[in-house]
Amino acid sequence: MTFSVWAPKAERVRVRVDGVEHAMAAGAEGWWSAAVDGTDYAFLLDDSDDALPDPRSVWQPDGVHGPSRRYDHSAFGWTDGGWTGRALPGGVVYELHIGTFTPEGTLDSAIGKLDHLVDLGVTLVEVLPVNSFDGTAGWGYDGVLWGAVHEPYGGPDAFKRFVDACHAKGLGVLLDVVYNHLGPSGAYLDRFGPYFAGQNDWGPGLNLDGSGSDEVRRYVVDNALGWLRDFHVDGLRLDAVHALLDRRATHLLEELAVEVDALSAGVGRPLTLIAESDLNDAKLVTAREGGGYGLQAQWSDDLHHCLHVALTGETHGYYADFAEPGALARTLREVFFHAGTWSSFRGRTHGRPVDTRVLPGYRFLAYLQNHDQIGNRATGDRMSATVSPGLLACGAAIVFCSPFTPMIFMGEEWAASTPWQFFASFPDPELANAVRTGRRREFGAHGWGEAEVPDPMDPATVERSKLLWAEADEPGHRDVLDLYRSLIALRRAHPELADPRLDEFSVEQMGTVLLLRRGDLRLVCNLGATAVTQSLDVASGWVLLASGDVALVDQAIRLPAESFAVVQATGSSSNQPTSASRSARS
């Protein structure tokens, strides 16, 4: 077997295999290689005695500072030979974190909860990063070995078992990957070559356009293809792509999209790239034929912010702009609230408009909550901790009756009582204290007392963040779960609810009332504290689903406070409620 590594500036490279050192031969373009038999290995550069793990490692059984271990992808017994994939249009995404999804916090234990997701109606499971990071517990965004599955989760075989089990149940798998920075502990890439180029808000960023960057870009693309090809993942969620600094004519994202499309054709199933971007620029999800990068979708934080303000009333920080009257309806229509308009939080104009005539809504993910919007609050409190069940129901109805791709954060579907807090477990005491102090200082500036901000290094913080599955069957929580199931079933039974055409979608916001028109269907939400009567511009109809005691009178509907109803007009192609509609009544 041959060990190889890219170290273009090294004058000598050795590989230590099972404790024995071997000289490596210099090859073309900075690559070194050695034919040696063995299992555990690490590289030594020049005269240094530091044994460094392989930057392209797939297996780190002893953590990010230990040696890498040989891994044979062909040895795993896949059972998903008939899997044809899951396309994003019409789908429902479920975001989860392996370490807190189950009490055990492992990939194998997560398999035992997949039936819950199938029963809920999910089609795609989005897994927060599983790449290796220093410590045992963390969100995964401090990864330093991007191709190795975190060993406390179960390592590479466990991730393959998870993906294989998802496919067996008809679930696609999306994996969150982080290419915009590396974590603060175990980031040895710069010892091997010119991988780094400056710092961003989270750590060292990659050299994507400077000298030596060809191989750095190849490192990213090969990592992405490896997850999709070798681990059978169905798509990637690309973290904070606005922090990828690339001044080349062909941006890394476009290069990645081209290669992923080619792989998709080769494996015969759809492969999806979803960006998280703060740019408010639809160029990312515009086809390359139209001058875009060709990604399939991106998160829609503006819509989240509008929903959050409308439901919670919070207007501090970046939420302030989204308190503008009519902001929710405008953003539902136009995708971005900031579209070449003034952003007070940024102190400048931001974004540009989306051409809703040509871009479908499924390219934008809609959500009430996600790991960032919960975990980056001081105490990690979920929306259900402060918002009434009625308003939560309205928010969920807006998401699932919109033309966007709905996404749920784990536990949201039963209004989980557990918070999801920021946590890490760096073994280095100085680093751990720096993270702890920085977190408290950050929120102290916003008026939080030191004792109110959970210690991210305390194992109790992780435990508090784990889902309590038993409560999903408890009164109150069960009602929310039934509602989420009904909304997803309704979306599936009535194609007009999943219709992604933004130019065929209309919405009005009249005081506390929001009215969405979806073909022959109407979603009407009363976000206010008193009952309302709202005209529906339909001659007659019936209620398919409601969260309160509603009444249809002539061409109007009366809704109690904080409630919604989905109404179907008579005279449509389906002149009776479907069985799915009737079972969805509440």
TrEMBL record:
Q: Which domain of life is it from?
A: Bacteria
Q: Which SUPFAM superfamilies match?
A: (Trans)glycosidases, E set domains
What keywords is this UniProt entry annotated with? Carbohydrate metabolism, Cytoplasm, Glycosidase, Hydrolase
Broadest EC class assigned to this enzyme: hydrolase
Single biological process term from Gene Ontology? trehalose biosynthetic process
| Gene name in the database record | treZ
Q: Which InterPro entries match?
A: DUF3459 (IPR022567), GH (IPR017853), GH13_cat_dom (IPR006047), Ig-like_fold (IPR013783), Ig_E-set (IPR014756), Trehalose_TreZ (IPR012768), Trehalose_TreZ_E-set_sf (IPR044901)
Reaction catalysis annotation: hydrolysis of (1->4)-alpha-D-glucosidic linkage in 4-alpha-D-[(1->4)-alpha-D-glucanosyl]n trehalose to yield trehalose and (1->4)-alpha-D-glucan
The protein's predominant localisation is cytoplasm
- Site described as Transition state stabilizer, located at 372
Q: Mind telling me which SMART domains this protein's record contains?
A: Aamy
Q: Which pathway does the protein contribute to? A: Glycan biosynthesis; trehalose biosynthesis
E.C. designation(s): 3.2.1.141
Stored NCBIfam families: trehalose_TreZ
One GO CC term, this protein: cytoplasm
Q: Name one GO molecular function term.
A: 4-alpha-D-(1->4)-alpha-D-glucanotrehalose trehalohydrolase activity
Which residues are named in the active-site annotation? 239, 276
The protein in question is named: Malto-oligosyltrehalose trehalohydrolase
Q: Does the keyword Glycosyltransferase apply?
A: no
Tell me where it resides.
Cytoplasm
Annotated residues that bind substrate are located at 237-242, 301-305, 371-376
Q: Which family does it belong to?
A: Belongs to the glycosyl hydrolase 13 family.
Glycosyl hydrolase family 13 catalytic domain ranges (all copies): 95-491
